[in-house]
Every structure is written in C-alpha cells, then in structure tokens.
Amino acid sequence: MITAIVLISADVDRIPEVAQEIADLEGVTEVYSVAGDADLVAMVRVRRHEALADVIADRLNKVTGVTGTNTHIAFRTYSSHDLESAFSLGIED
User: Fold this and answer.
1) What distance lies between CA 73 and its chain's CA centroid?
2) Coil, strand, or helix at residue 40?
3) What pLDDT score does 35 carry?
4) Complete edge-to-edge strand list for the sheet that includes strand 40-46
5) 24 phi-psi bin (left φ>0, alpha ψ -120 to 50, beta other)
6) Residue 10 burial (C-beta neighbours within 10 Å; 0-12, 13-18, 19+)
7) CA dist list (Å): 28 to 13, 20, 21, 23, 86
8) Which of 18, 41, 55, 91 registers the highest number of CB atoms within 10 A of its CB?
9) Which pTM was predicted?
10) pLDDT of res. 75
C-alpha cells in the first residue's frame, strides 16, 4: 500500500464542500479540516505509484475550490494500530 499525505489549500467559502468531494474520491481514505498552513489534509492510499497521479493530479486537484496542494509520500508507517490490515479489507492484490 502506498500512502500519500496531501495538504490542500481551498477557497474558504467552499471548505466543507471541497472536503466532502475529495472524501468521495476513490483512493482517498480520510480528509481532515485542519488549522495551520493548509485548510485540509487528505490521506490517499493506493496499490501502485501510477495511481497517485490518477487520484491526486487527475481528480483531487480538479475539485472546484482547490487552490493548491502539497503532496508527501510516506516511506514507512509507525503505529500502535495494525493499519495495513485495516486498509486491506476487501482489496485484492
């Protein structure tokens, strides 16, 4: 599983709508409304690196109200939870 953390700047008047539209995209597992330099943070989880372009560049960036993104690719996951098994339910390799 490849994980990308996407920091999103959005039109202030559309933050809730932008968040919901992004949350509805295939490959996006969570969207958080946050304080700080970004308005939203989206977690994108895909099986192949090529799929990141499909989700982020081709769909997420084109949501009306998104004004900019900054994407971080995760190398490793450190957690007390078994995230891999939680996110692999129902997904075939």
Assistant:
1) 11
2) strand
3) 96
4) 28-33, 40-46, 2-10, 66-73
5) alpha
6) buried
7) 22, 11, 10, 6, 14
8) 18
9) 0.83
10) 94
Does residue 49 contact residue 79 with C-beta atoms inside 8 Å?
A: no
Distance of CA 75 to the CA centre of its chain: 16
Amino acid letter for position 73: I
Q: What is each CA distance from 93 to 47, 48, 51, 89, in whole angstroms?
A: 8, 10, 14, 11
Alpha carbon dihedral 84, 89, 90, 93, in 10-degree steps, equals 20
* Count of positions (residues) in the chain: 93
